[in-house]
């Protein structure tokens, strides 16, 4: 399925910093239902509300990905919650996502 990147209905995001990935990254479910997982490469699935962060396909670590504007605030809040909960448990776990456009 191809998405129209020029549409104003999407934000373009990029993972800027991620201290652990793959098996070392804990699956996380935020209180708003957004899941954060590290499997292959950064992308967002609106159908199951999952933010996939850097994973096994390291050559795609810096990929840009689309998030529908309708989901953007939930995704940002989930990342903040991940950082509050997981980063406080381990000083080395942090995740930084930046909006590009």
Commentary on this structure:
By secondary structure, the chain is of the alpha+beta class. It is globular, with a radius of gyration of 13 Å. The chain has one domain (10-99). Strands 2-3-5-4 form a four-stranded mixed beta sheet, with helices on one face. It has a three-stranded antiparallel beta sheet with strand order 6-1-7, covered by helices on one side. 21% of the residues lie in helices and 32% in strands. The protein has one helix at residues 69-89, and strands spanning 10-18, 28-29, 35-38, 43-45, 50-53, 64-68, 95-99. Strand 2 (28-29) and strand 3 form a beta hairpin. 22% of the residues are buried. The mean pLDDT is 85. It has one helix and seven strands; from the N terminus they run E-E-E-E-E-E-H-E.
Total domains? 1
What average pLDDT do the residues reach?
A: 85
Biggest sheet layout: 4 strands, mixed
Between the first and last Cα atoms, what is the distance in angstroms? 21 Å
* SS-based class: alpha+beta
Low-confidence stretches: none
Oligomer: single chain
Helicity, in percent?
A: 10-25%
What is the total tally of β strands? 7
**Biggest sheet strand line-up:** 2-3-5-4
Radius of gyration: 13 Å
Number of helices: 1
Order of helices and strands: EEEEEEHE
Q: What fraction strand?
A: 25-35%
- What shape does the CA trace take? globular
